[in-house]
Amino acid sequence: MRCAIVGSGLAALAAHATLRHAGVPAEEIAVFGTHEDPTDVWRVRAASIRQQRMRSESDGHLAPAAFPGLAVREAARRRMVRPLLETAASRYHPTVGDFLAHAGRVAERCGWAASFRRARVARVAAVEGGFELDGEGPFAHVLVATGHPGLYRPREYPHAVHAYEPHEYAARVAVVGAGMAAATEWLNALAAGSEVVSIRRREPVRRPLNVPRPLFTKRGLPAFHRLPPERRASFLRAIDQPSYPPGRAWDDPLERAMAEGRFSGSDPGQTPSREVQVICATGFLRGWQHDMLLSAIVRDHDLPTHGRWIVLDADGSVPALTDARRTLALAGVAAQWAFPAADTIAGAKYVARAFARRVCRTR
Amino acid sequence: MSYTLRGRIETRLAASLPALALALALHRWWAVELVALMLVVGVLLDTCVYHRALAYQPAWAALPLGALELALVYGLMRALEIAAPLGWALALYGSAWLSAQLCAHALFPRLRLEYAQSGGELGAAGAATAAAVALAVAGGLGADYAVRPPTVHLHGTVRGPLVIRHAETLTGGVVLGGIRVRANGVRIEHVTVVGGDDAIDVEHAQHVVIDDVRLIHFRYDGIRVLDAGVMIHDCSVSAPRTALATGVLIAYSMGRPMSMVDGCTIVGTREGISTHSSMVDVTDNHVVGTTARAISLSEMSMDSASGNRVEGAKGIGIVCMDHSVCEIHHNTIAGAEADGVDDPSRAGVAIESYFYAQARVSHNTVIASPGGVRALDESVITR
After folding, report:
1. Interchain CB distance below 8 Å, B116 and A59
2. Taking burial as the number of CB atoms within 10 A of a residue's CB, which of A88, B180, B200, B283 is the most buried?
3. Residue A173: helix, strand or coil by DSSP?
4. B118 and A59: CB-CB below 8 Å?
5. Are A251 and A106 part of one and the same domain?
6. Contact residues on chain A for B53, CB-CB shorter than 8 A
7. Distances in Å between the alpha carbon of A340 and those of A210, A219, A237, A354, B166?
């Protein structure tokens, strides 16, 4: 075994598919995780907020090559030109169903099942020739893709339901947060006939993707990578603000509800009354400190960190534990130091490609 | 996509491979020149405009940007006098645009996983391909330049007749005694010819261009074209030595590429422009004071005469005759005079169809020409 992927979610699947595309046999990849279906965790969250469409665009899928994207596939399947026109205008957003179905096919094609081992890894130890995972190994190349460390629930609302947990809507709903999940919950609750109060500290930014588009490519990334640590951390904090896409699909229902007096805003200082259902659309816990495995890696190897970020090279690898013969890289939200939109599909693929390059270089 | 500058240029050059291959397959220098022009315009726009203005370029932007580049390429093509047939040029541009879209949205993302995240950069292979394309285009242009016919500059007055037997450009100066063209691909420009039986005589040749020449004191024809294809622009023909002279005569050239007489001024000849068994466009000429016919389209010719001004023609202004098929439109014929004989075909006729000819006539202006517009001797005029 040459490679190990710790975690069994979407980022892990992207890495597995990319390694397979690069010619690494499935038998040489071990995937350690708790869910045999890599879409399980994400599927539950998407279903909880009743997400219908992805925020990502046609190339927001987990196959290694961007083409054919989901728009082309949908156009071919439905024999319609509309998805192609929408993607040309950057307005195509695949349905969650299409995305998940495609992810399932990717997992099947890349032999995910042959690599999967049901195990929760608690320790990654650097040893001669690579890394041991809870004593197993050594693996020359390890990618840690454990995902978000948990749901974030503000202390003020200890009994609130989180948006990413299954829930229904009461007659009066208070949604805490102002990002994509919050906006989705506003519309869900309004559609269910509820009266909605939005509790937020700041107004959401309206932008198509999580971060400005140049930060997804080499156009914007080199400048980001050149930032000294303190400024890089400030930059990451600055772009880490709640946002959801612009468009009438979002605005029209809210404007109608406001006109009917069914949607209003509030600041976090006001405590909702007991009969109001509080939904926390506040995302996830942030920082390596909340992830047991990452905490152990940082502690055991005395890795440099900066605030809630582990310091990484531009390709997502941990510099202190990576050299010409071995790689320890992080994927998902933990890789933000390398790629600001690391917790997106584009981020997962960015790290996966860099990881595959390192694996192939040492074959 | 958010392109880097290098990504834009590499993508553009590599995506032009199909268009370059098509241009080379066409075996025409204009095609290579056109691809080079497209690339130069594109790379300049990439560098000076697109990279700064478009941090993110959605796919739909390819349409307006493509139209902008088409307009610029077309304008420069005209300014640089690249002799590309418009239809073929548009087809080549269209194929280049289409292949660029297919490469950028399908082929490159398929072949190189990092294509989008690299901002369109193609890695080592892309740089090599881009360099190869640039080299091929530069080589093509160099070869094009190297095989161009030489240019002969005439200074002062040269005693003729000059006989041209190889492709060349002859420019400037005064030639006494006439010029004879006996080779393809000859260009004569800015030359004054004085005397000679024919001032310029072209035989058995094609792709001959005669531009901005002044012809005087010749004996028979200002320009005589026999079994040849010529483009005659902006000539001045006047003061012949005999009363039997013709301004421009194009004869028996049906087997050659179409000819054109455009923007010439012809004064005081027996016939102004005369065609026989040829295909000629006679356009925007000014013919004054002819003594037989100002413009004669004859002997089974298939010609058109449009936008010409004919003044003071004795007998006939414009005639389509002897089984010819003619389009005659938007001409102005003023002051055609009867030549005194009792012949209705020469009674100051502005436009005439004669002896089994078929003329389609429209939008002409006839002034003070007593013979008007008429068909004679089994011929037809349709309007």
Report:
1. yes
2. B200
3. strand
4. no
5. no
6. none
7. 9, 13, 10, 15, 68
User: Of A250, A280, A310, which one is at a domain's C-terminal end?
Assistant: A280
Q: Which amino acid is at B299?
A: E
Question: Which chain B residues touch A92 with a CB distance below 8 Å?
Answer: none
Residue A58 belongs to some domain of the structure: yes
Size of interface A-B (CB pairs under 8 A): 67
Same domain, A26 and A173: no
Report the predicted TM-score, pTM, of the whole model to 2 decimal places. 0.74
Contacts of A349 in chain B (CB under 8 A): 113, 117
**pLDDT tens-digit profile of A16-48?**
999 999 999 999 999 999 999 999 999 999 999
User: Whole-angstrom Cα distance, residue A87 to residue A144?
Assistant: 32
Examine the domain organization and report whether A15 and A105 are in the same domain: yes
Say whether both A124 and A35 belong to one domain: yes
Residues A77 and A145 in one domain: yes
pLDDT of amino acid B222: 97
**Would residue A221 count as lying in a domain?**
no
| pLDDT tens digits, one per residue of A180-211 | 999 999 999 999 999 999 998 888 889 888 88
From chain B, the residues in CB contact with A213 under 8 A are: 2, 55-56
Q: Please state, in angstroms and rounded to a whole number, the distance separating the CA atoms of residues A218 and B3.
A: 8
Tell whether A18 lies on the interface with B, counting CB pairs under 8 A.
yes
Asked whether the predicted pLDDT for residue A156 surpasses 70, the reply is: yes
Amino acid A269: pLDDT: 63
Going edge to edge, which strands form the sheet with A116-118? A116-118, A29-33, A3-6, A141-144, A327-330
- To the nearest 10 degrees (0 to 180), the angle between helices A96-109 and A70-78 is 100
Across the interface, of A64, A88, A213, the residue whose CB is closest to B2 is A213
Would you call A236 an interface residue with chain B, using a CB distance cutoff of 8 Å?
no
Q: Between chains, do B7 and A218 touch, taking CB under 8 Å as contact?
A: yes
Residues of chain B with CATH 2.160.20.10: 151-382
Domain total in chain A: 2
CA distance A238 to chain B (A): 20
Q: What are the chain B neighbours of A63 within 8 Å (beta carbons)?
A: none
Chain A segment 247-306 residues within 8 A of B by beta carbon are none
**Percentage of residues in chain B having pLDDT higher than 70:** 100
Tokens of A307: 């605030």
E strand or H helix that includes residue B353: strand B349-354
Spatial CA neighbour of A220 closest among B55, B104, B58 = B55
Q: What is the mean pLDDT of residues B110-119?
A: 93
Q: Whole domain around residue A308: which residue ranges? A: 3-150+285-361
Residue window 88-107, chain A: list those with CB within 8 Å of chain B.
88-90
Q: Are residues A46 and A84 in the same domain?
A: yes
| Percent of chain B with pLDDT strictly greater than 90 | 85
Q: What is the mean pLDDT of residues B239-245?
A: 95
CA distance B104 to chain A (A): 10
How much is the pLDDT for A270? 63
- Taking the Cβ of residue A349 and every Cβ of chain B, the question of whether any pair is shorter than 8 Å is answered with yes
Give the model's confidence band at B362: pLDDT under 50 very low, under 70 low, under 90 confident, else very high. very high
Residue A33 touches partner B, C-beta closer than 8 Å: no
> Based on the domain organization, do A273 and A289 belong to the same domain?
no
- A137 shares a domain with A8: yes
Fold of B151-382: Pectate Lyase C-like (2.160.20)
Residue B225 has pLDDT above 90, yes or no: yes
Give the CATH number for residue A110.
3.50.50.60
CA distances from A190 to A187, A252, A256 (A): 5, 12, 10
Tokens of B139: 């080589």
Among A280, A308, A329, where does a domain finish? A280
